[in-house]
Each structure stands twice: as C-alpha cells, then as structure tokens.
Design a protein that fits this description.
By secondary structure, the protein is an alpha/beta fold. It has 2 domains: about 180 residues, D-Maltodextrin-Binding Protein, domain 2; about 150 residues, Periplasmic binding protein-like II (D-Maltodextrin-Binding Protein, domain 2, 3-Layer(aba) Sandwich), CATH 3.40.190.10. Helix content is about 40%, strand content about 15%. The protein is built from 14 helices and 11 strands. The strands form 3 sheets. Strands 4, 7, 8, 9, 10 and 11 form a 6-stranded mixed β-sheet that branches. The protein has a 3-stranded parallel β-sheet with strand order 2-1-3. It has a two-stranded parallel sheet with strand order 5-6. Strand 1, helix 2 and strand 2 form a beta-alpha-beta unit. Helix 10 packs across helix 11.
Length: about 350
C-alpha cells in the first residue's frame, strides 16, 4: 500500500501546534484515563496529546463490550474516555451511565461525517462521537483452506476441526449463527435465539478456541486456519501473513460503529472532551487509520486514506452500499433477551 500522504502528514504532527484544536489551553493540566479495545489506536499519539495540552494519558484496554459494561457497572475504575460499540452506547445511555458531552470543547466534531451522527444508538447525539466503523467477515489461510469460502457454514465444517476459531463474546457469536440461519442479528425471538444456540453448540466440538485479540497470533502463525473477525484487523494481519484472505459471507454480516463517550462520574470531564476533540482531528484520525486499518468517521481522513488504497483494500476497509444493504447494525435488546443471551452463553462455555 502506498502511504506517502499519510506518512507526510504524520511527520507534520511533530511540528508544534499543527493539530487543530489541540494547542495549549488555559487550565489544561492533570490527566485523562482512556479505556479502549485492544489493538485499536496508535499509542504514539498520546505523546503528541501530552505535549500539546499538558494532560497525561493513562491508557488501558478491554476485549469485549460486555467486559467494559461489567467494569463500569462495578464502579471499579476511574475512567474518563471509553470507546464502546453502537449497541453498548445505547445500553449505557438507557442505564444513565454516560455524561452528556459539552461540544464547545469538541470543535473538531465538525469533521465527523454526517452519516455517523445522531444514529439509532444515540438519536439526539448528546453522548457519543463516532470513532471508527467496519464490518465482520471470515479470515482464512488460503494455503491450507483451498475451497472457496462463501458462507458462515464454513465455521461448522468438520474438515477444519481443531483449526476453527470463534468470537469469545455472545453478541458476535450469536449474531453469526443467527445470520447463518437467515435471521436478523437483532431478533427478539427466543425460538430463533435458541436455534442459534444449537448451531453454536454443534460448532463447539470443532473449535480450537474462543478468541478475541488472540486471533492475531493464531492466524498469523498458522496455528489456526479459519475464524471470524473484523475487517480492519484482517488488513493488519495480512501484512504479516499474505496467505490470509477475508470474505464477507453471502448470508450477510454485521456493520458496526464504535464511538467515544465519557462515563458518568468522570473526574476529568473537560480533559476527556479535549482528548475526544484531539481524536477527531484529521491528522490524528489518519495516524490511527494507518495503525489499525479501520474506516475513520472523520470524512477528511477517510477521503485522504482511500486515495492510497488499491481496490481490494478499499472494498474491505470501506464496505460498499451493496455490502451494507445485507448487513445488520447491532441494536440494544430488551432485558429478557439480554438475560437469555447471558444464560445461553454460560451454558455454551461450560
């Protein structure tokens, strides 16, 4: 991939006060505690933010939306910025677990594409700022898996027994099974969800492991041959193992938006808003895209980055309208359905 434009902009970031909205501000000091997905940011940007604002970044990670929710529910950590997925944003809003944002501290919000504002999970746009978007597909090692992969059913193929990976979280795992059965990923039908459980139970004997970030090492090294994961992560993995291939199954898939939010009770709310503003700048969005290969919600950064992609990379990173027409965005589900998911997941993992 050509990256001359991106690298030039990254170099410009080393010059003082280049990032719009991130120059020294009166009273800016202290710290900001950021909690994010693993492998989902260019950590070198923290030094830039600290230099430009005087605010120290304390950084930690989570692996699933449900893990993040449990941490916040326990009140066990002083966290100022989180980056949950769409349906989890809605869940946190419903339970009054997020602070409304003061957009006067986030002027770079003007760079967020209108397609990612006031979405169903935050219809009034009060609590979140979109960060990255992407889709889920199957990643497989073409050197060992020689059949054409077109369906989620390949994850139940006994021929790959012991070489199959699966998401280690209920929403993604059940979503795949539901889509394989021809159902919507947001169904509230207990019968359909139990059918999906039967699919996952049938798959379990063939699995090598349930994974999240562990999928990097397993697929890149050839320890496992096939598994579902996110498009951006595939583009990173394929640089280390060119035999890896990404496909969105014919039954359809999940399209997601991850967004930046501030948990209720943040002790550093203004610093958190300054950090969100920093993340929305075009230069920083480009650095993050270069590192994690997801599509930024910043329309300027997305347009610049797309110019340096070949056709295949562009279609994986920026899903076509045809792909999105056959994709479901996870929504927040009723409590009885969430309880059912939790109970079935515990049963499955025994």
């Amino acid at each position: 991939m050509k990256r001359t434009i991106i690298l030039a902009l990254a170099f410009c970031l080393l010059l003082p006060s280049v990032v719009s909205g991130c120059g020294k501000r009166a009273g800016a000091a202290g710290e900001v505690n950021v909690h994010n997905w693993g492998e989902y940011i260019d950590e070198s940007i923290f030094r830039i933010f600290e230099k430009e604002t005087g605010i120290k970044v304390n950084y930690s990670t989570f692996q699933t939306n449900e893990q993040l929710y449990a941490l916040l529910k326990r009140g066990g950590a002083n966290i100022d910025v989180i980056i949950p997925s769409d349906y989890m944003v809605a869940w946190l809003i419903e339970e009054d677990m997020l602070e409304p944002l003061d957009f006067s501290n986030i002027p770079n919000y003007s760079l967020v594409d209108g397609r990612y504002r006031n979405l169903e999970y935050d219809p009034d746009g009060k609590y979140s700022v979109a960060y990255m978007t992407g889709t889920v597909g199957i990643i497989y090692n073409s050197a060992a898996v020689t059949d054409e992969i077109t369906s989620w059913g390949s994850l139940l193929d006994e021929r790959y027994s012991g070489q199959i990976l699966m998401f280690d979280n209920p929403r993604d795992a059940f979503g795949i099974a539901l889509k394989y059965l021809g159902y919507n990923m947001n169904t509230s039908s207990e019968n359909e969800i139990r059918e999906a459980f039967d699919v996952l139970a049938a798959q379990k004997p063939f699995l090598q492991a349930y994974v999240m970030d562990q999928i990097y090492d397993k697929l890149e090294s050839g320890e496992a041959l096939i598994g579902p994961y996110y498009a951006g992560d595939y583009l990173v993995m394929s640089e280390n193992n060119p035999d890896l291939v990404f496909v969105r199954p014919e039954e359809g898939t999940n399209y997601f938006v991850d967004a930046m939010c501030i948990p209720k009770g943040s002790q550093n709310k203004k610093n958190a808003e300054l950090f969100i503003d920093f993340m929305c700048s075009t230069e920083i969005a480009l650095k993050n895209m270069e590192e994690i290969m997801y599509a930024s919600a910043n329309y300027e950064a997305a347009a610049i980055f797309a110019e340096d992609l070949d056709f295949e990379e562009s279609e994986i990173m920026f899903a076509s309208d045809e792909t999105l027409a056959n994709a479901d965005v996870f929504t927040h589900l009723p409590q009885n359905i969430l309880t059912l998911y939790n109970d079935l997941w515990i049963e499955l993992k025994k």
